[in-house]
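Quick sanity check, Endonuclease III:
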Amino acid sequence: MKQRKPAAPANVKTKAGGSLVAPLRPSTVQPIPDPVDPATLAEIFARLSAANPAPRSDLEYINPYTLLVAVVLSAQATDRSVNLATRDLFAKADHPAAMLALGEEVVRHHIRTIGLFNTKAKNVIALSRLLIADHGGEVPRERAHLEVLPGVGRKTASVVLNVAFGEPTIAVDTHIFRVSNRIPLAPGRTTDAVQAGLETVVPEPYRLNAHHWLILHGRYVCKARKPECWRCVIADLCRYPDKTPAPGPRS
Ligand code: SF4
């Protein structure tokens, strides 16, 4: 069966300030391919696990609060740009009361190199205030309580639950959406569909780290424009039809 190339997802801004992947336009809609079989899927995660047994987020953080702030800041920004801004910010404020004491203007100055910094500075102050008012200054472990915080949507809540609290959630960003549709692991037309699929099919021993393995694989190997299939540890298991051949010797 000839497999279609997954279309590049379009970012759609949410009320919470995050982004979703827009559904494909009707004119581009193709049948969704079948995912790889369970044995292949288990082998894929076994190899990703063997290649990187203890994956970590590229985002730098000190505690659940700084992780939450970093993930909020990372919407439509690179992890590298967020880390450059938060090193100084978190040295001054690594808990909500300290962030409120800094004030919105100082926060805005620290994060001015990140896209949407005006809105994000407001959200960081507002969510810090709510954490103090409703949760004693702690980051709640419940999804419902996380998702009502300013700037926090489903994806951000999933990342915090997974990384800070060890919940087996699989937040789907543009990298995971692309990888899941290419292989395909849990093909779908929206991030929510892919997340639901992954959280159903990924074998239990791999669920805790699946988010990290897939995001790192998408960011560094299965790149959007030109996946580096020649050095991919799961190339023989992946059904993507347009694999990139190994580069030839330089002339
Ligand atoms: S073989 Fe290529 S397309 Fe398939 S997962 Fe690896 S890098 Fe991505």
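Posting the structure with no commentary besides this: The chain has two domains: 32-54+168-231, 64-163.
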